[in-house]
Specification:
Blueprint: H1 2-35, E1 38-44, E2 47-53, H2 58-64, E3 74-76, E4 87-92, E5 95-101, E6 104-110, H3 115-121, E7 131-133, E8 145-149, E9 152-158, E10 161-167, H4 172-178, E11 188-190, E12 202-206, E13 208-219, E14 223-232, E15 236-240, E16 245-256, E17 259-272, E18 277-284, E19 299-307, E20 332-334, E21 345-348, E22 352-358, E23 367-371, H5 375-381, E24 384-390
Parallel strand pairs: 1-4, 5-8, 9-12, 14-18, 19-23, 20-22
Antiparallel strand pairs: 1-2, 3-4, 5-6, 7-8, 9-10, 11-12, 13-16, 15-18, 16-17, 19-24, 20-23, 21-22, 21-24
């Protein structure tokens, strides 16, 4: 009985020992397996994660984590790098976006997080006048279209004022809108609004305005001549002095850039009628006096001076209407009509035969003024006493 009990106990003891040994070995193996794992820090598309792994390479680690890596993705260190304890691994998955520039649209893979980062990644440099959509600070999304409009210089002449500006516009209309230049219905643009603009083009904005102007203008009078049988041939006498009329006109004036380019009469009205000048023209033939021997009439001594019609303020027309400008070779004297009647034929010593056809403010009593066409001749005559014979 004692032997049987002893054997049974020994069998059980060994079973326990073996079982304990198996558990101990399993635990030790598990502990050894776990403690042999390497610690790595993962930055997965901006999210940080700590993991333990037995993976030999970075690529095996991603397979272990069930992460599919595309060739365009950014992985640091490279996929074939060996995993070491406390390694830091960065994964930036690439996304496909559209890039639109002057040469067209292209599809681009990128790992950039923002539009600005995308430009730097693609080595795209913008100048201060270039435009980009969306804004540089925008987060880059899959399928997003990044549009770059390159600016170019243009010359704008607005109302005569010239300026060089930068533009990304394609047409004249877009360019004016971008420059915040507004037009009126009358303004004109060259080239036309739908024309395409390119670098160094010149755009003219002609500012057009219409204004009205009311002015009064003179109406010149006509000179009407009438033959007069009582005046000597070659002499003239004003019967009725002419007067200018007056007409009021309303104009429509078109100005371009402040300068008048056209003027159109809208309406007109006469505010004062003109009065024509009527001039009597002598038609009487002067009978030549045959000889001095047949002359008769009174003789008087007078103080004589000389004058000419060629001076400032001189009308050239005598008191009896003779136009001395039109008849410069006539011999005429100015007299006091109370001494020598106007129209008298006279002979002046040293001057010759003449007509008493003019008067003067300083000609009083026995004084006469002798006419010369030449100013120098009048000066040469001077002042002297002469004998004059009144013929009729």
């Amino acid at each position: 009985m004692k032997n049987l009990f002893s054997k049974s106990f020994t069998h059980k003891k060994w079973s326990i020992v073996i079982a304990s040994l198996i558990v101990l070995l399993t635990s030790a193996g598990f502990i050894t397996y776990e403690t042999s794992k390497k610690n790595v820090t993962l930055n997965l598309d901006g999210r940080e994660k700590v993991a333990k792994t037995h993976a030999a390479t970075v690529e095996e680690l991603f397979e272990e984590l069930d992460i599919s890596i595309k060739s365009q993705d950014h992985v640091t260190p490279t996929k074939d790098s060996k995993v070491t304890n406390n390694m830091e691994i960065v994964w930036k998955p690439a996304k496909q976006v559209q890039l639109t520039q002057e040469n067209g649209k292209t599809s681009v893979w990128t790992t950039a997080q923002t539009v600005d980062g995308f430009l730097k990644e693609q080595n795209i440099v913008l100048n201060e006048h270039d435009e980009i959509q969306p804004d540089k600070n925008t987060t880059l999304q899959k399928g997003m279209n990044v549009v770059i409009d390159r600016a170019f210089p243009l010359t704008i002449i607005d109302g005569g004022k010239e300026e060089v500006v930068w533009s990304t516009s394609t047409t004249v209309a877009d360019f004016l809108k971008q420059q915040e230049i507004s037009l009126t219905d009358l303004d004109r643009v060259e080239p036309s609004l739908d024309e395409t603009v390119v670098e160094n083009d010149m755009v003219h904005v002609i500012r057009v305005e219409k204004v009205t102007d009311v002015v009064e203008e003179p109406i010149p009078f006509a000179v009407v001549t009438r033959k007069d049988e009582n005046l000597a041939s070659g002499t003239e006498k004003i019967i009725t002095h002419g007067k200018e009329g007056l007409i009021k006109k309303t104009y429509e004036i078109v100005k371009e850039n402040g300068k008048e380019v056209s003027r159109t009469v809208l309406n007109e009205s006469v505010t004062r009628e003109k009065q024509d000048q009527v001039v009597a023209v002598g038609n009487k033939e002067v009978v030549q006096i045959a000889s001095r021997g047949s002359e008769s009439g009174k003789e008087i001594h007078v103080t004589s001076t000389a004058y000419t019609a060629n001076c400032n303020g001189c009308s050239g027309t005598t008191a009896t209407g003779i136009n001395l400008h039109a008849n410069p070779n006539l011999k005429v004297i100015a007299v006091d009509p109370n001494v020598i009647p106007l129209g008298s034929k006279v002979h002046v010593e040293g001057y010759g035969y003449a007509v008493a056809a003019d008067t003067g403010g300083a000609i009083n009593g026995n004084k006469i003024d002798v006419y010369f066409a030449s100013k120098q001749d009048a000066v040469n005559w001077g002042r002297k006493t002469v004998k004059i014979k009144v013929l009729n």
